[in-house]
Write a structure and sequence with these properties.
The complex is a heterodimer.
Chain A: H1 5-54, H2 62-75, H3 100-103, H4 105-127, H5 131-152
Chain B: E1 6-7, H1 11-30, H2 35-58, H3 65-68, H4 72-84, H5 95-117, H6 135-168, H7 175-180, E2 182-183, H8 197-215
Antiparallel strand pairs in B: 1-2
The chains are: A mainly alpha, B mainly alpha.
């Protein structure tokens, strides 16, 4: 039996609605995913600034430094999950994430692990009250931000 | 053509000019990359600007603000005379060029001022006063710092275009006098009146003090 033209157009309509809806949903997702990861990186930037500012003081508040280092240490292992497929530059959402993130997931994950371990060291130094050590270590933490951005982020 | 070259720019003014050129290039090339050098260039530029303000008050006659800053009337008159080819010759800045000098000095000042408070997106590399503002404001200032640099680039292009215009259309070489300090004039002119050397020494001290203070975030305790 041949389907009636009416049934065909109904089927066509259904398929297009599903496909179109799916595309729209993906677009909404890419947007919200991008926005929330940007908010997360901003949190990390704020923690970083709080530490660099704090360590400028004559006698820094090492408890606050440790807390901010813990924030970075805690967020670092989640970074890879903030970049699901389809949320790169091809999504149409304004992002500085480079396609390299998805081409080289192992390298990207390694860069995040570097941040995690440098932040963990800083946290330990801060808990031990080692101001000079923390001042040296914060440079390595900052370097791990920049090191990753050089390769995986535009600008 | 007067055979004896007339002095127009004193040594300190020329030193200021070319130091600023080099420092702006250094700052441009190191921006976002080698931030220790970038900051150093910024402190030096701030010191230079302080020197230039001092020199504008106490320096040689052609460097003095009172000698070259003119009102809108004088600028209109200069433009009219310029169109008719009767503007004559200027020892030092002409009334229109004076605007360019003020705009460049002002914008360089704004640029350095913004840089003092700016921070990078990592919250890591920042100006010496970035700890006085929160992350969001310091990031906003960093964006203004970039925008101001675009404007500064525009002004520099305009500055170079004007030099090219004078070279091609007016047959006036403005570059060589900024190097040698002297220029030949067709008619008799009142040349540069130099400032005593001790004022230059005072200017150098002011520049060093301001540059050093900036590098310490103006915390001198």
């Amino acid at each position: 039996m041949t389907p009636s033209p009416r049934a065909l157009s109904a089927a066509f309509l259904t398929v297009s609605l599903v496909l179109g809806g799916g595309a729209a949903l993906a677009a909404v997702n890419a947007k919200s995913v991008t926005e929330s990861r940007q908010a997360n990186f901003k949190t990390m930037g704020k923690s970083m600034k709080a530490m660099t500012d704090g360590l400028k003081a004559g006698s820094p508040d090492m408890t606050a430094i440790a807390a901010n280092a813990a924030t970075l240490r805690g967020l670092a292992p989640k970074i890879s999950t903030w970049f699901p497929k389809g949320t790169g530059p091809e999504s149409g959402v304004k992002t500085e994430a480079l396609a390299e993130i998805w081409k080289d997931p192992a390298g990207f994950a390694a860069a995040a692990r570097r941040l995690e371990s440098e932040a963990a060291k800083l946290e330990a130094l801060a808990r031990a009250g080692d101001v000079a050590g923390a001042r040296a270590q914060v440079r390595l933490v900052g370097g791990s931000c920049g090191g990753c951005h050089d390769k995986y982020k535009a600008d | 053509m007067s055979e004896t070259p007339t002095p127009v720019w004193d040594g300190p003014t020329r030193l200021f000019h070319w130091s600023l050129v080099i420092l702006l290039l250094v700052a441009w090339l190191t921006a976002g990359e080698q931030m220790t050098i970038h900051r150093g260039a910024g402190y030096a530029v701030l010191g230079l600007l302080a020197f230039r303000v001092w020199w504008g008050l106490a320096g040689g006659s052609t460097a003095r603000f009172s000698g070259f800053v003119r009102g809108p009337g004088a600028i209109r008159q200069y433009l009219r005379a310029s169109r008719e080819g009767t503007d004559g010759e200027h020892v030092g800045h002409n009334p229109l060029g004076a605007l360019s000098v003020l705009a460049l000095l002002g914008l360089v000042g704004l640029q350095v001022g913004l840089g003092l408070f700016a921070i990078d997106e990592d919250g890591f590399e920042g100006g010496p006063l970035s700890d006085r503002v929160d992350f969001d404001l310091a990031r906003q200032i960093a964006e203004w710092h970039e925008l101001a640099f675009r404007l500064l680039q525009g002004l520099v292009v305009l500055h170079l275009a004007a030099i090219l215009y004078y070279a091609v259309r007016r047959r006036q070489d403005l570059v060589r006098p900024m190097i040698t300090g002297v220029r030949k004039f067709r008619g008799p002119v009142q040349g540069l009146v130099r400032a005593p050397l001790w004022r230059f020494a005072v200017g150098v001290l002011i520049a060093l003090a301001v540059g050093f203070a900036a590098s310490r975030g103006f915390r001198l305790g």
